[in-house]
Write a structure and sequence with these properties.
mainly alpha; about 130 residues; two-stranded antiparallel ribbon; 2 domains
Length: about 130
């Protein structure tokens, strides 16, 4: 790590010569001021949308905030992989899964990690 650091004398010479050749503010205060400006701008955008009742999936009426529940969306590729993993459960020679593992493997919409772990665990327990 130390071989990647700039020597203090070279760093000071670069700083004295002008702006440093990095895409970052020179001081912490400059960084914080920039972030504060961005935060203020974004809060103003949200306030304007809230006043116009145009926030997506959000309603503010009579002092109450209501947020529409997001629906889980599973990508088609994940569904296809789940179907392939579900098919592995029914291969001849794969031991029957004990107890709740069978329930997890029987649901093709279960998370892929759960299905894969359950199938591996059931094979290891046999």
């Amino acid at each position: 790590m130390e071989d990647q650091l700039i020597a203090p004398a070279l760093f000071q010479a670069m700083r004295d010569a002008g702006p440093l050749p990095v895409a970052a503010p020179a001081t912490a205060q400059e960084y914080l001021d920039g972030r504060r400006t961005l935060l203020d701008r974004r809060l103003a955008e949200v306030a304007a949308k809230a006043a116009a009742d145009t926030l997506e999936d959000v309603r503010i009426k009579a002092g109450e905030l209501k947020v529409t529940q997001l629906k889980a969306v599973t990508p088609e590729a994940a569904e296809a992989a789940a179907d392939r993993l579900y098919g592995l459960v029914h291969w001849p020679g794969l031991p029957a899964a004990p107890g709740p593992v069978r329930t997890i493997c029987a649901k093709p919409t279960a998370s892929l990690a759960s299905v894969l772990f359950s199938c591996i665990a059931s094979a290891a327990l046999a």
